[in-house]
Amino acid sequence: MMMTSGQLTTMRRENGMTQGELAKAVGVSQSYIARIESGTLDPKLSVVNRIVETLSKRKGFTCGDIMTPDPVSVDARDSVSTAIPIMRRRGFSQLPVVRSGRVVGIVTERDIIRHLGRDLTQISVQTIMDPVSPPMFDEKTPLKSILTLFDSFQAVLVQKQGRLTGVVTRADALKSAMRPEPSKS
Known about the structure:
The protein is an alpha/beta fold and 185 residues long. It contains 9 helices and 7 strands. The strands form 2 sheets. Strands 1-7-6-5 form a 4-stranded mixed sheet. It has a 3-stranded mixed sheet with strand order 2-3-4. Helix 2 packs across helix 3. The longest helix has 12 residues. The radius of gyration is 23 Å and the shape is elongated. The two termini are 28 Å apart.
């Protein structure tokens, strides 16, 4: 495949990579990439092939790569009035709900708003939370495997060995589109 220096620069930037990052991934120096991009060096075909392969890879993010780690949660027995200030202070639209260390659901702003006419100090989070718990996946689950779930869920919970370790929101998934592919060393 023939590639102009301008195309190389464009592809590299679209992948969110610096010249140094691309050089490291391909096994050449940063100055080598700079010279190709400036048009002062005609690279060997093997180098061009490695560049194309590196820049053409689909981003291989896992849930663990993009999750918000150590998510704040509330106990199922906590009052709704306990959850509200946590959500407001942190700017969260939802919180995982746990009981004895295990996720039992998620409470959302919508759940709380539906009960604003009640005494929220007397109602437990578990009473008002959506009975449909968000999906939970292992940290190693590929991001592309969960994307369609965001049609129905605001968040996907992430676990490792049965313990809640993170949360992936729609915003996290969108941010991954702008990040370079994680290194798998």
